[in-house]
Automatic annotation (TrEMBL):
It holds the Pfam family Glyco_hydro_1. The active site is at E385 (nucleophile). Keywords: Carbohydrate metabolism, Cellulose degradation, Glycosidase, Hydrolase, Polysaccharide degradation. It catalyses: Hydrolysis of terminal, non-reducing beta-D-glucosyl residues with release of beta-D-glucose. Its EC number is 3.2.1.21. This is Beta-glucosidase. Residues 1-20 are annotated as: Disordered. PANTHER family: GLYCOSYL HYDROLASE, LP05116P.
Length: 490
C-alpha cells in the first residue's frame, strides 16, 4: 500500500527504542457489522449475521448488531478519534447488504453515500482508507439461495466488487477482497459458531473453494474498474500451527491442520493449485469435483500484498482418545470446523491468556512471518489485524487502564520489528480494533478496542493503550519495556 513518508522523531535521552522504517503504515481496523448499527436504515436489508444474531441461543446474552457502536451515525466522532491517534490508515469493511441489499442488481446510493462521506473525511485528515469488501456479512437472500457453498455466490461477489470499485475507486486506492475466508467457510458452514450456523463439513469445503473463486473474480473486477495504481489483496487468518511434540504422529497432525487452516487458501491463491495432501485428507468426504477446469487459474491472481491476521498460535497433537476441537480457540460446538481431521486434538498453549482464552505468544507471530517469507519470498505483507481482548472497565477517575493490552501490543510489535530486521517485507500494522464492538458469537462481552465504548450511551473513552499506540504511531518508535501507561497524550 502507499502511504506518505513520515519523519521519525528523536528518542528521549537515556531511553532505548526500536525504530520502524520511515513510511511504515500505522493503522487501526474495524468491520461493518461489528460497529455500524443502523441495521435497517437507508435501504439496508438483513445479512446472515442479522439473522444469526436474532436466532435465540446463537449469540451470548442475545446480543445483536442492530445498534452496535452506532458508527453509522457517529462516524465523524470516530474519524476525529483516529486523527487524535495519529494513524496513517484505517481499514474498514463495506456492508454488502447496505450497498447492494439483495446481493444482486443496482447499488443503493444512500449506502454508498455513507462510505463516500467517510472516505472523504479520512482523506481530509490524512488517513488512507483501506477497504475490505467482505467481512462476513453475506446478504441473507444469497444465503437463502445456497450461500457460499454454491458457485453462483462467487459471481454475485464479483459483481458487487465492480459496483464498489466504480463508486469509490476515485477515493480508495487499497482494496481487500475477503477477510478471513477460513472463518466464513469453516466456522460458518462447519462448526456453526458463526453465521449462517450450518454444520456440514462438505458444505464448508465447498464454501472455501467458492470464497477462493470469489476472490479471484473480484480481483479481476477490481483491476477492470480501478486505476493502475490501485492495490488489491486478501486478508487471511493464517494459523501458526505447532505440534505438541516431535513425535511423527503429532507432526502429521500439525501438517493436517496446516492444510485445512492455511494451505487450502495459500495453495490456490499464491501457487495456483490445491495441496495434494489436503485433497487426500478429505477424500472420504468429497472428490472436490466442485473445482472446475480453470478455477485455480482464476483464483491465482497477482496480488500487491498479503494481509495477515494473527492473535495466538495453534497447538495440536494426534488424538489419543476422543479427539477434541474445543481448545482450537474458535468457539465451542458439537461440530468440528476441521473436516477430515477427526484424529487431531487441540491443546491450549501454555502461558498467560487474554479474555478470549487465547495464549499471549508473540513468538508465534515472528515464526509465522518468517515462514511466509520462506514460502512466498516475493510477497509483501501487511499485518491487517493484531490485538487482544481484556476485561476493561472505567475506573472512578473516568479512565480505562489496560496495561495487559499495552504489554501484548509491545510484545507483538517487537516481533514485527524483529521480522523486519530479518528481511521480511512488512509494509504496516493495523491494530484490532479501533473500538470495542460486537464480537460475533460473544456479543458485547469481549472488548478488543483501543477505545472503550459505553454501550448504553455510546460514549467513547480512549484507553491507556490508545494513548500508548498514538505515541508509537506518531514517532515510529517502540519504547523499551511496556512503554509506560501512555497517559501523556490523546
Amino acid at each position: 500500500m502507499t502511504t506518505a513518508t513520515r519523519s521519525v522523531a528523536p528518542a528521549p535521552e537515556n531511553t532505548t527504542v526500536t525504530r520502524f522504517p520511515q513510511g511504515f503504515t500505522w493503522g487501526t481496523a474495524t468491520a461493518a457489522y461489528q460497529i455500524e448499527g443502523a441495521a435497517s436504515a437507508d435501504g439496508r436489508t438483513p445479512s446472515i449475521w442479522d439473522t444469526y444474531s436474532h436466532t435465540p441461543g446463537r449469540v451470548r446474552n442475545g446480543d445483536t448488531g442492530d445498534v452496535a457502536t452506532d458508527h453509522y451515525h457517529r462516524w465523524r466522532e470516530d474519524v476525529e478519534i483516529m486523527a487524535d491517534l495519529g494513524v496513517s490508515a484505517y481499514r474498514f469493511s463495506l456492508s454488502w447488504p447496505r450497498v447492494q441489499p439483495t446481493g444482486r442488481g443496482p447499488a443503493v446510493e444512500k449506502g454508498l453515500d455513507f462510505y463516500r462521506a467517510l472516505t472523504d473525511a479520512l482523506l481530509e485528515k490524512g488517513i488512507e482508507p483501506v477497504v475490505t469488501l467482505y467481512h462476513w456479512d453475506l446478504p441473507q437472500e444469497l444465503e437463502d439461495a445456497g450461500g457460499w457453498p454454491e458457485r453462483v455466490t462467487a459471481d454475485r461477489f464479483a459483481d458487487y466488487a465492480a459496483l464498489a470499485a466504480r463508486a469509490l475507486g476515485d477515493r480508495v486506492n487499497t482494496w481487500t477482497t475477503l477477510n478471513e475466508p477460513w472463518c466464513s467457510a469453516f466456522l460458518g458452514y462447519g462448526s456453526g459458531v458463526h453465521a449462517p450456523g450450518r454444520t456440514d463439513p462438505v458444505a464448508a469445503l465447498r464454501a472455501a473453494h467458492h470464497l477462493n473463486l470469489a476472490h479471484g473474480k473480484a480481483v479481476q473486477a477490481l483491476r477492470a474498474e480501478l486505476p493502475a495504481r490501485a492495490q488489491a489483496s486478501i486478508t487471511l487468518n493464517i494459523h501458526h500451527v505447532r505440534a505438541l511434540t516431535e513425535a511423527a504422529e503429532d507432526v502429521d497432525a500439525a501438517r493436517r491442520i496446516d492444510a485445512l487452516a492455511n494451505r487450502v487458501f495459500t495453495g490456490p491463491l499464491l501457487e495456483g493449485q490445491y495441496p495434494q495432501d489436503l485433497l487426500q485428507d478429505t477424500a472420504s468426504l468429497t472428490d472436490w469435483s466442485f473445482v472446475r477446469d480453470g478455477d485455480t487459474a482464476t483464483i491465482h491472481q497477482p496480488l500487491d500484498f498479503l494481509g495477515v491476521n494473527y492473535y495466538t498460535p495453534t497447538l495440536v497433537s494426534a488424538a489419543t482418545g476422543e479427539a477434541s476441537h474445543g481448545s482450537d480457540g474458535h468457539g465451542i460446538s458439537e461440530h468440528s470446523p476441521w473436516p477430515g481431521a477427526d484424529n487431531v486434538a487441540f491443546h491450549r498453549p501454555p502461558g498467560s491468556t487474554t479474555a478470549m482464552g487465547w495464549a499471549v505468544d508473540p513468538t508465534g507471530l515472528y515464526d509465522l512471518l518468517m515462514r511466509l517469507k520462506a514460502d512466498f519470498p516475493a510477497m509483501p505483507l501487511l499485518i491487517t489485524e493484531n490485538g487482544a481482548a481484556f476485561d476493561d472497565y472505567v475506573n472512578p477517575e473516568g479512565e480505562v487502564a489496560d496495561p495487559e493490552r499495552i504489554a501484548y501490543l509491545h510484545g507483538h510489535l517487537s516481533a514485527v520489528h524483529r521480522a523486519l530486521v530479518a528481511g521480511v517485507d512488512i509494509r504496516g500494522y493495523f491494530l484490532w480494533s479501533l473500538l470495542d464492538n460486537f464480537e460475533w458469537g460473544y456479543g458485547y462481552s469481549k472488548r478488543f478496542g483501543a477505545v472503550y465504548v459505553d454501550y448504553p450511551t455510546g460514549r467513547r473513552i480512549p484507553k491507556a493503550s490508545a494513548r500508548w499506540y498514538a505515541d508509537v504511531a506518531r514517532t515510529g518508535t517502540l519504547p523499551d519495556g511496556d512503554g509506560g501507561n501512555g497517559r501523556d497524550r490523546v
